[in-house]
């Protein structure tokens, strides 16, 4: 806006003043400095496109640790579908502004692929004792090896005391706990509850790719999970599964990929209910080409 010939008032510019590290030497120096002071590091690994679901993890980390480190890295080895990797939303400036709005003291690690993998962009091999052969693992071959590989590298760099993961990706959470055991990594894994929109849809970076029609209809997924939970009290697991499959058969907008009732710790398919065991229901469905997942504790 020009108010006199020699005075120009510029519109406000939003300056992001987060600490952003992109290379190993910088983040390692920052980590060493934090460790020297005896402070506790809480780590939240993400792939960016941050939303309130991620924010709920930052909140848990802040409440339980002295320093919070958030990584933003779209990990190529965990995508079994190259098109999914290509279309994954990326906007670092928007993510930094989002983080700054939460707490400008959060440290951000936003490496490039070479910083993490060098020239060898490949997954390592792990024995997840069957945790990776069901559900997401069955439909996304190689996905969990990719997730575990990047986390092993990130944990080695960030050296967190605690690391926070959402139950939104419940199978991933179980696999990470196993990874930490297998590799004897000195980090405690904390699972955090699923954050949802008011209409029940689980928050996800993929939701922004839903058409208006699909977004409006998407609470159907959570509603069906809630119905499954109610039925689980007095129906068999196969009856509950048949109910859900039927609900989806009649739905014009969503294609069910799987619905599964599994033991909450082994993730083994639950063909019968046993006393003193915990069960969860897991779902994956397509809204056009957008793949949505959700899950719920049944007992
Ligand atoms: P992502 O960026 O999708 O890799 O997710 C990073 C972390 O945020 C993972 O631990 C996810 O489980 C977690 N997360 C994503 N969405 C949600 C949500 N709606 N509620 C809780 N945690 C979530």
Automatic annotation (TrEMBL):
One of its GO terms (cellular component) is cytosol. GO terms for molecular function: ATP binding; pantoate-beta-alanine ligase activity. Pfam families: Pantoate_ligase. Its EC number is 6.3.2.1. Its main location: cytoplasm. It is found in: Cytoplasm. Pathway: Cofactor biosynthesis; (R)-pantothenate biosynthesis; (R)-pantothenate from (R)-pantoate and beta-alanine: step 1/1. The active site is at 54 (proton donor). Keywords: ATP-binding, Cytoplasm, Ligase, Nucleotide-binding, Pantothenate biosynthesis. The reaction proceeds by a bi uni uni bi ping pong mechanism. This is Pantothenate synthetase. The lineage of its organism: Bacteria, Pseudomonadati, Bacteroidota, Flavobacteriia, Flavobacteriales.
């Amino acid at each position: 806006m020009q108010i006199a010939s020699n005075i120009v008032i510029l519109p406000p510019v939003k300056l992001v003043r987060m600490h952003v590290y992109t290379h190993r030497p910088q983040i390692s120096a920052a980590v060493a400095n934090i460790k020297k002071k005896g402070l506790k590091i809480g780590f939240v690994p993400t792939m960016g496109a941050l939303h309130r679901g991620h924010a709920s993890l930052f909140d848990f980390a802040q409440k339980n640790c002295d320093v919070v480190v958030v990584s933003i890295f779209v990990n190529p080895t965990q995508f079994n579908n190259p098109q999914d990797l290509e279309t994954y939303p990326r906007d670092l400036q928007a993510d930094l502004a989002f983080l700054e709005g939460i707490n400008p003291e959060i440290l951000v690690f936003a490496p490039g692929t070479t910083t993490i993998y060098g020239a060898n962009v490949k997954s390592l091999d792990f024995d997840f004792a069957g945790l990776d052969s069901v559900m997401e693992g069955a439909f996304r071959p190689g996905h969990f090896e990719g997730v575990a590989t990047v986390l092993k590298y990130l944990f080695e760099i960030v050296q967190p005391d605690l690391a926070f993961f959402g139950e939104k990706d419940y199978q991933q959470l179980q696999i990470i706990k196993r990874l930490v055991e297998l590799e004897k990594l000195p980090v405690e894994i904390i699972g955090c509850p699923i954050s949802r929109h008011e209409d029940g849809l689980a928050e996800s970076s993929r939701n922004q790719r839903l058409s208006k029609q699909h977004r409006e209809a998407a609470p159907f997924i959570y509603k069906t999970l809630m119905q499954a939970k109610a039925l689980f009290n007095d129906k068999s697991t196969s009856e509950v599964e048949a109910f859900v499959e039927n609900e989806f058969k009649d739905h014009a907008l969503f294609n069910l990929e799987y619905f599964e009732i599994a033991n909450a710790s082994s993730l083994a398919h639950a063909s019968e209910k046993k006393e003193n065991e915990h069960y969860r229901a897991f779902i994956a469905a397509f809204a056009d080409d957008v793949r949505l997942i959700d899950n719920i504790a049944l007992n």
